[in-house]
Design brief:
CATH class of one domain in chain B: Mainly Alpha
Strand content of chain A: 35-45%
CATH superfamily of the largest domain in chain A: P-loop containing nucleotide triphosphate hydrolases
Number of helices of chain A: 8
Helix content of chain A: 10-25%
Strand order of the largest sheet of chain B: 1-2
Shape of chain B: globular
Order of helices and strands of chain A: EEEHEEEHHHEHEHEEHHEEEEEEEEEE
Number of strands of chain B: 2
CATH architecture of one domain in chain B: Orthogonal Bundle
Distance between the termini of chain B: 35 Å
Order of helices and strands of chain B: HEEHHHHHHHHHHH
Distance between the termini of chain A: 41 Å
Helix content of chain B: over 70%
Oligomer: heterodimer
CATH class of the largest domain in chain A: Alpha Beta
Number of domains of chain A: 2
Shape of chain A: elongated
């Protein structure tokens, strides 16, 4: 697949503060790429640089292998769905959607036709003459998407477009957006801090923190093979532990020597271990690799979330079977479910509950 | 408890707003006979629209002429202030300046000076042997004699009322959501289209309040035409002043004031229609 958009060594400074630090990223045609990270990680700035609203302090942005640095936003072949939508309050729904086409001097009849088709696509038939301020959040959001899509951009940039919606609507819109993307064959670059949203919709996820891309990969890669403790903690729930790689396939943590499937570390190298709560099996006391006492149980709907105090560590364990608080249990972890990672420079283990 | 706090304001409004208004209306519809008795009459109001000679065409009648002149000058002032003020507000609101607070300070500073002093200042500039003409003579250029004319009054009004145009427009421009402007750029609008289709329409509430804040005092002012128009320049404000201070005819003076109030209400209503359209689009209405 050809690279449609490419960022090469893009850095951005606001004053003395580094917001983006040497970001490399490419996006292929028809790909759904999500920039995922906590607020302030630089994901929106990355999107704004692609959109042309910010200039990188250094580095270059390519569109079909041509540098875009000197192209102002109104000449870039992409459209943006803004956070909080940024609809034109002085125009009604149809005028908002028609804005881009009017600028391009598309014939009136054609504009009308396209606006109606767009309204149908986003399920807002008959809303042409409504004031945008009289719409609900979900409706405004769909107008914003229609306003961008009607221009048939090659790339659609979406800046936390679902952030202001309630959970149920957000889930519906996630599915709708993904469907639209597949149907129209448009490249989506999507910014969110919601890991679940990223996992649900993306072909590729780029996890960002403090102005850097930590890991790029498919949702499965990112979830199953996090590169470091930050990615592991940010995506999904996890037990992150400090350990020592004794030799290939043997790692020691929580005072126990575990068999694992990782290799290639230095002998006795200090490492971070990720164990997902759903990967820990509860067994009878004394039959586990580590043994302890259940300190807390929370019912989560599909499963129970239990805290097990064992070997001086509070383990987070998910199970559909409840072990009551105070009961003694054993914990078993299969070798392939232990994920060993290089220690990141600043271990965030303490911040992860 | 909270209601208790409103009573002083209600009292204030009653004494200093409602009572004077009622008094003005009372004087406007009454007369005083030779014995000092007060009686009801519509004669004062009628006098305003009467001609001096019989069958004088309506628009040649003296008070109608004064009214039209006042409204025309106020409108010209508002339009000139808008033409001068909008670009100024736009420049001030754009982020290009490093020292914006200082610029705004410079702009507001003349307002600290007394209104009268500023207008006297213009007199000494515009006079036949004033600063302007001395300067022109120095350059061997023909002198300009605009003191006591339409132009001098207009100049004085524009100078004095310009800040009232700039500030509301400046406010409406600075509080505008930058994302909306970016959205327009994103959809292909060049700077000209961004301005014409988005920025200007969204700044209209500021323009409307600017025009209101210039037009109203300009239509009622009497100091500026007194000083720069030289008294001969008769506007509604001068007429009221003359009736109260010189002629001592409180009844007719009040009648003129009532006509002015009605004119203001009508113009406010016309302007508010523009404003309300904006309000609807800015978020009041729910379907």
């Amino acid at each position: 697949m050809p690279r449609l958009i490419e960022l090469k060594g893009v850095s951005k400074l606001f004053g003395k503060q580094t917001v983006l630090n040497h970001v490399d990223l490419y996006i292929r045609q028809n790909e759904f790429v999500t920039l995922l990270g906590p607020s302030g990680c630089g994901k929106t700035t990355t999107l704004r640089i692609i959109g042309g609203f910010e200039q990188p302090s250094s580095g270059d942005v390519f569109f079909n292998e041509k540098s875009m640095l000197n192209t102002p936003p109104h000449k870039r072949k992409l459209n943006t769905v803004f956070q909080k939508y940024a609809l034109f309050p002085n125009m009604n729904v149809a005028e908002n959607i028609a804005f881009g086409l009017k600028i391009k001097k598309v014939p009136k009849a054609e504009i009308k036709e396209k606006v109606i088709a767009m309204l149908k696509l986003v399920n807002l038939e008959g809303f042409e003459n409504r004031r945008v301020t009289a719409l609900s959040g979900g409706q405004q959001q769909r107008v914003a998407i229609a306003r961008a899509l009607v221009n048939e951009p090659e790339v659609l940039l979406l800046d936390e477009p679902l952030g202001a919606l309630d959970l149920k609507l957000r889930k519906e819109m996630q599915v709708e957006l993904k469907k639209m993307q597949q149907k129209l064959g448009i490249t989506f670059i999507y910014v969110t801090h919601d890991q679940e949203e990223a996992l649900t919709m993306s072909d590729t996820i780029a996890v960002m923190n403090e102005g850097e891309i930590l890991q790029i990969g498919t949702p499965e890669d990112i979830y199953n093979e996090p590169k470091n403790a930050f990615v592991a903690a940010f995506i999904g729930e996890s037990n992150i532990l400090s350990g020592k790689m004794l030799q290939d396939f043997h790692v020691e943590f929580a005072g126990v020597n575990f068999t694992c499937i990782d290799k290639g570390f230095a002998k006795n190298e200090h490492v971070d271990i990720v164990v997902r709560p759903e990967d820990i099996r509860i067994t009878t006391p004394d039959a586990g690799m580590v043994n302890g006492v259940v300190s807390n149980v929370i019912f989560k709907g599909v499963h129970y979330e239990m805290r097990v105090d064992a070997a001086g560590i509070s383990w987070k364990v998910h199970s559909t079977v409840q072990s009551p608080t105070g009961s003694s249990v054993g914990l078993v972890i299969a070798p392939e479910l232990i994920h060993v990672m290089k220690k990141s420079v600043s271990s965030i283990e303490d911040n992860v509950s | 408890m909270r209601r208790l706090f409103t009573y002083p304001y209600i009292l204030w409004l009653a004494i200093f707003v409602i009572a004077p208004l009622l008094l003005v209306v009372f004087f406007a519809v009454t007369g005083t006979d030779t014995y000092g008795n007060t009686y009801f009459t519509l004669q004062n109001m009628g006098q305003f629209f009467e001609g001096i000679i019989d069958d004088q065409p309506f628009f040649q009648r003296i008070y109608v002429v004064i009214t039209m002149r006042s409204l025309r000058l106020a409108l010209q002032t508002a339009v000139i202030c808008f033409i001068l003020g909008y670009p100024l507000a736009y420049i001030l609101a754009s982020k290009g300046f490093r020292n914006k607070p200082f610029l705004i300070f410079l702009f507001i500073m003349p307002m600290w000076m007394n209104f009268l002093v500023r207008t006297y200042g213009w007199m000494s500039i515009l006079e036949r042997n004033g600063i302007m003409n001395n300067f022109l003579r120095l350059l061997n250029l023909p002198t300009i004699d605009i003191m006591f004319t339409d132009s001098a009054v207009l100049l004085g009004m524009v100078y004095n009322f310009l800040p009232f145009m700039v500030l509301p427009i400046y406010t409406s421009l600075t509080k505008m959501d930058k994302r909306i402007i970016e959205a327009a750029q994103d959809l292909g609008a060049n700077p000209r289209n961004v301005f014409l289709r988005v920025v200007f329409p969204l700044s209209l509430p500021g323009v409307v309040s600017g025009i209101t804040m210039v037009f109203m005092p300009a239509a009622a002012t009497f100091i500026i035409p007194n000083l720069l128009g030289g008294g001969q320049f008769f506007l509604l404000g001068n007429l009221v002043e003359q009736q109260f201070m010189l002629a001592g005819n409180w009844h007719f003076g009040s009648a003129v004031a009532v006509v002015m109030i009605i004119l203001m209400i009508v113009s406010t209503f016309i302007l508010s229609r523009f404003d309300r359209q904006e309000e609807v689009s800015e978020g009041g209405m729910r379907l």
